[in-house]
Amino acid sequence: MSLLDGMTRLVVAHAHPDDETLSTGVLLAELSRRGVEVHVVTATRGELGGLVRGVPAPQPGTDAYAAHREQELADALVDLGVHHHAFLGAPPALGPGRSPRLYRDSGMRWVTSTLAGPADDDDDRSFTAAAVQDEVADLAAYVERVRADALLTYDADGSYGHPDHVRLHDVAVATARATGVPLVLLAGGAVDPDDAAWEWHDWAEHRPAVAAALSHHATQLTVQGAHVVHVGGQREPIRTTIGLRAG
Q1: pTM of the model
Q2: CA-CA-CA-CA torsion for 202, 27, 184, 94, nearest 10 degrees?
Q3: What pLDDT is stored for residue 113 in this prediction?
Q4: 3-class DSSP state of 240
Q5: CA distances from 72 to 45, 108, 118 (A)
Q6: How confident is the model over 46-72, as pLDDT tens digits?
Q7: What does the DSSP assignment read for 148-193?
Q8: Domain 9-246 belongs to what topology?
Q9: Domain segments of the chain: what residues?
Q10: How many other CB atoms are found less than 10 A from the CB of residue 132?
């Protein structure tokens, strides 16, 4: 029996615009095809992302750049068939009695060619600088509001170590405990594909929809056939295989 069997309403929590498509694009497209009500929650606007050379967009780090990435995300979700989205800290993903808050991208640095770590500079407005209990209150409010069957996010390594991904994993774990909603984890790059603890799905038939969605994130990547080239120059196949396990 799959973790997805009988699912009618899923909240998928991601750290930045483009993560939803890069990490879970085929999953979102498949669930939308099945008629599952998919809700994507994004923690930040990706304010500290890069900018692909030659792409006409505002300067990274500015409010205009954040707004540009918000639109990239909105356009990508249309191609994936997702009709519900919220930013953490803004209604309806806002804890009761709390004032709206914008969680900023915490930034990162590459520790190795495949593993990220915390940025050298701290910002007290960033997602990782905020109190975990505040972030849990915001995510829990949304999970309960939409009456989710499950909450999905990254594994404990945050897929590749980005501090915002790792923090969001911790927030999702605490949210699942607080609400009683089952947690589903997404396999990151360090997971052994032969590990029987994970169930694996291949939805290569959704690659065209994912490629179309990825093309909207032009500030961050370039689609080249069945591959993407990231703003930092890394090249990888468009992900069509997804590993999931209960959290």
Answers
A1: 0.95
A2: 170
A3: 61
A4: coil
A5: 10, 21, 25
A6: 999 999 999 999 999 999 999 999 999
A7: -SEEEEE-TTHHHH-HHHHHHHHHHHHHHHHH-PPEEEE--TTS-T
A8: Rossmann fold (3.40.50)
A9: 9-246
A10: 12
